[in-house]
Amino acid sequence: MQAVVEKLTPERRRELTRNTLIDAAADVFTKRGFHAASLEEIAETAGFTRGAIYKNFENKEELFYAVIERRIQGQLQRFSEALREDKGSATNSARMAGIWEEMLAFDTDWFTLDLEFRLYAMRNEDARKTWVEHERQLHDLVARFIEEQQKALGASTAVDADTMAGIVIPASQGFWQWAALDPDQVHYYRAFLEVLLKGVGYEQP
Question: What one-character DSSP code corresponds to residue 48?
Fold first, then answer.
């Protein structure tokens, strides 16, 4: 019996093109940095013309945000899977901290790129506004994720998920900075997470 080949719709074709461009951008941004990365190299890496980028993204900044967003979604998915596989972590702050640390994974290349773009945003008002909006979306995403995991695991904290997200995200970024400069500092991050989780009373009712 001959296999039926699904015909690509315009929407599906655009989705595949967009994903390929994001993959290529992730490679080029990591290798070149945000400023040095060119749309020409990203398009060539993806196997498309520069015009394909402008059909899917307004500019290099928007493409960068798409790369970051995918990375965040992937991290949260890995965290969710890890929690499902290790349900005992819901009542053990040390194990929960270990899962969170593994999910974030100190990636010097990406941290350097993130810092580079933050400096760019601080010097460019339009980019700053966009970056602030992106950070707020990240905060909301993490807060919703914490709420969902608490509900799924039957766990609770003394502070709300919104506050938890507001603490964990900027604190994690600070620890990334130290770890990027001195890898021997990484263990302090786990200690911080354990103290935080104990302090907010992360437990099952």
Answer: S
